[in-house]
């Protein structure tokens, strides 16, 4: 049990695990680390069955991909230009911040699939490219220093994919959370869903501990490993792109991708003008706005549907949010009273939202209780 609880934290050695919650067993309070833990489907570890098909969700985290992050980062320069080969002329996908190409990174005679994220800006050349590239390099250095099992790593950058250096990251076959749920929702047990939520919570806690605000958390930038575990990608890009381009990104393109997940204080739904006719700037993303988005992720993972799924387009969602509406509680037992209360806390006023530690503790407790109910 102790190994299981440690693995659920998704933490590396530099991040100490959270203390495990106590449980009430037969009227007595007991530390879950003292229990022999059966898997979520009710079977014991010896049976070989587990929360996911390959048993990895409840095992100690291990290297999930053929790439070796330390080897790539410390044996090669951050500039990987010349080591990345693009697959196909056109991007595999496009998002609000740019285009994603599938490629192959070749190092030391071996190769691995990578995603190359090319930044797209929407403003005309203002002659300040040197300063913009300097800002981008600063942000990339921050990303390069991050190392956590629930945060998508950055291998380095490469030129040849646009005006600015493109970011080279591992390619995850199961893709974004939204499409993953669309394909597999009917096969996901509650235990698997809670594992995903705990992964996102721990990843977000780590980012905030490194003074990194995601700013755009949604079902499109939570990515899924082949073993059913989640990691967070694209953190900080919304703020960065607003600085690299102009307000067009923030006012138009951002809303199309993450409107359903965004905190209302950070959304650009209407043009607000001051009394003297000047645009009133919105507050930048904060850890609190990330917590709001986490509440939307909770709803999506538990229900299998995107927030406001009953609104087919963005226009009614904009209207709903501008009127203070939040997504409706799903029917059925997947969103219990406790879970719905916690989700609504995430959507409350900024000062009343849970902390990083609270979202980690809540998802951890829910997962442990899900397992213990099978005893």
List the helices and strands and how they pair.
Blueprint: H1 2-8, E1 23-25, E2 28-30, H2 69-75, E3 84-86, E4 93-94, E5 98-107, E6 110-119, H3 129-144, E7 156-158, E8 166-170, H4 177-184, H5 190-209, E9 222-224, E10 230-232, H6 237-244, H7 247-258, H8 287-303, H9 314-322, H10 337-346, H11 356-372
Could you name the CATH class of the largest domain? Mainly Alpha
The biggest sheet, with number of strands, parallel, antiparallel or mixed sense and barrel status, is: 6 strands, antiparallel
What distance separates the N and C termini? 13 Å
Given the C-alpha coordinates, what overall shape results?
A: globular
Count of DSSP H/I helices: 11
Given as residue ranges, the uncertain stretches (5+ residues, pLDDT < 50) are: 8-66, 246-255
Structural class: alpha+beta
DSSP strand content: 5-15%
Number of strands: 10
Number of domains: 2
CATH superfamily of the largest domain: Transferase(Phosphotransferase) domain 1
Taking Cα atoms only, what radius of gyration do you get, to the nearest Å?
Answer: 21 Å
Please estimate the helix content.
Answer: 25-40%
Question: What's the CATH topology name of the largest domain?
Answer: Transferase(Phosphotransferase), domain 1
Helix and strand run: HEEHEEEEHEEHHEEHHHHHH
Protein name: Protein kinase domain-containing protein
Organism: Paxillus involutus ATCC 200175
InterPro entries: Kinase-like_dom_sf, Prot_kinase_dom, Ser-Thr/Tyr_kinase_cat_dom, Ser/Thr_Kinases-Pseudokinases, Tyr_kinase_AS
GO molecular function, one term: ATP binding
């Amino acid at each position: 049990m102790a190994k299981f609880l440690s693995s659920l934290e998704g933490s590396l050695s530099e991040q100490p695990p959270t203390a495990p919650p106590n449980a009430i067993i037969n009227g007595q309070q007991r530390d879950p680390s003292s229990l022999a833990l059966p898997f979520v489907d009710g079977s014991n570890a010896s049976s070989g069955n587990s929360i996911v098909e390959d048993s990895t969700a409840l095992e100690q985290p291990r290297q999930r991909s053929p790439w070796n992050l330390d080897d790539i980062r410390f044996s090669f320069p951050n500039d990987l230009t010349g080591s990345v080969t693009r697959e196909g002329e056109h991007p595999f996908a496009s998002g609000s911040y740019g285009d994603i190409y599938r490629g192959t990174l070749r190092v030391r005679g071996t190769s691995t699939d990578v995603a190359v994220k090319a930044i797209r800006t929407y403003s005309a050349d203002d002659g300040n490219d040197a300063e913009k590239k300097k800002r981008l390099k600063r942000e990339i250095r921050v990303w390069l220093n991050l190392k956590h099992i629930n945060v998508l790593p950055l291998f380095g950058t490469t030129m040849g994919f646009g005006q600015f250096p493109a970011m080279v990251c591992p390619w995850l076959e199961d893709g974004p959370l939204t499409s993953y749920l669309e394909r597999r929702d009917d096969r996901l047990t509650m235990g698997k869903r809670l594992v995903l939520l705990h992964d996102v919570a721990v990843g977000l806690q780590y980012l905030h501990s490194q003074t990194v605000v995601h700013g755009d958390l949604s079902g499109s930038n939570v990515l899924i490993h082949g073993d059913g575990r989640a990691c967070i990608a694209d953190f900080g890009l919304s703020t960065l792109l607003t600085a690299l381009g102009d307000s067009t990104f923030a006012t138009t393109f951002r809303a199309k991708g993450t409107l359903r997940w965004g905190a209302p204080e950070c959304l650009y739904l209407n043009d607000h003008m001051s009394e003297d006719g000047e645009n009133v700037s919105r507050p930048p993303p904060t850890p609190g706005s990330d917590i709001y988005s986490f509440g939307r992720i909770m709803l999506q993972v538990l229900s299998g549907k995107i927030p406001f799924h009953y609104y087919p387009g963005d226009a009614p969602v904009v209207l709903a949010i501008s009127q203070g509406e939040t997504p409706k509680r799903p029917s059925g037992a997947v969103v219990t009273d406790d879970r719905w209360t916690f989700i609504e806390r995430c959507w409350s006023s900024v000062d009343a939202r849970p902390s990083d530690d609270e979202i980690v503790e809540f998802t951890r407790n829910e997962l442990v209780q899900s397992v213990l109910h099978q005893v």
